[in-house]
Amino acid sequence: MGSKNRIAKHILPIMLAEAEKNNITTWVEPFVGGANMIDKVPDIYIRIGYDLNGHVIKAMLDIRDQPNNLPESFSFDERKHWKLQEPSELYSWACIVTSFGADLTGGYARCKGSNDSTYCMRGKRNAIKQSTKIQDVDFKVGCYKTLSNITNSLVYCDPPYQKTSGYKTGVFNHEEFFQWCRDMKSKGNIVFVSEYNAPDDFEVVWQGEIKTNFSSQRKEATHNAVEKLFKV
């Protein structure tokens, strides 16, 4: 959910320029998701991507290590079963790629027409392309709050946005997260955050209007939003 693929070309150069200016060679993402930002970071950087969702990390490891083995079809019944299991090789990826609206806990994304394998086949083609870009990315399961030992790194955060689709793991504490960002800056890191809004001590370094379909209110399910990149 909330892929940065569309705006990476705008915000990535800003962050890379800051890293170069400060002689930083480590890039850390505490909310790596589908890795659509970190896969564009030059491999001259040490790249580390964390995510609290074990299915997401298992999927990214499969994309990195065995994209050609990813399934080309995945039925409704298969997804119904495997999305309730522990993160697993190949099946975690299939559950995500066949989910409606990229919501792992949600419904099955049915294809129009008779070809029920379309989503898997399309996803597999994309995975094979992405695989070459993430070969040295270190993917780990972890919560941002446990990453207190990071120093001298560029930390890019793409957390759950305020007033948008939530997660079944519970309410995301935004104030706690923003304070963590301040703490990380105090340890010598450069910290950037993608969000719609942030506290006053977070500087807007880029903004642009995009069409989004993630909202906590159905009447705003598809709307134009001002995406922003903040620097702590």
What does this structure look like?
With 232 residues, this protein is α/β, with parallel strands linked by helices. It has 2 domains: 8-52 and 142-231, Vaccinia Virus protein VP39 (Rossmann fold), CATH 3.40.50; 60-131, no CATH class. 29% of the residues lie in helices and 19% in strands. It has a 7-stranded mixed beta sheet, sandwiched between helices. Strand 4, helix 6 and strand 5 (190-195) form a beta-alpha-beta unit. Helix 2 crosses helix 4 and helix 3 packs across helix 4 (91-97). The radius of gyration is 18 Å and the shape is globular. The protein starts with 7 loop residues before the first helix and ends with a strand. Residues 214-218 have low confidence and may be disordered.
In short:
The protein has helices at 8-21, 54-65, 76-82, 91-97, 118-131, 174-186; strands spanning 26-29, 46-51, 138-141, 154-157, 190-195, 203-212, 223-231. Helix 2 (54-65) packs across helix 4 (91-97) and helix 3 crosses helix 4 (91-97). The protein contains six helices and seven strands.
Strands in their spatial order, largest beta sheet: 3-2-1-4-5-7-6
- Structural class per helix/strand content? alpha/beta
**Cα gyration radius (Å):** 18 Å
Tally of individual domains = 2
Order of helices and strands: HEEHHHHEEHEEE
Task: Count every helix, treating DSSP H or I runs of 4 or more residues as helices.
Answer: 6
CATH domain class name of the largest domain: Alpha Beta
User: Helical content, roughly?
Assistant: 25-40%
CATH topology of the largest domain: Rossmann fold
The low-confidence parts are 214-218
The CATH architecture category of the largest domain equals 3-Layer(aba) Sandwich
Q: Biggest sheet: strands, sense, closure? A: 7 strands, mixed
Beta-strand portion reads 15-25%
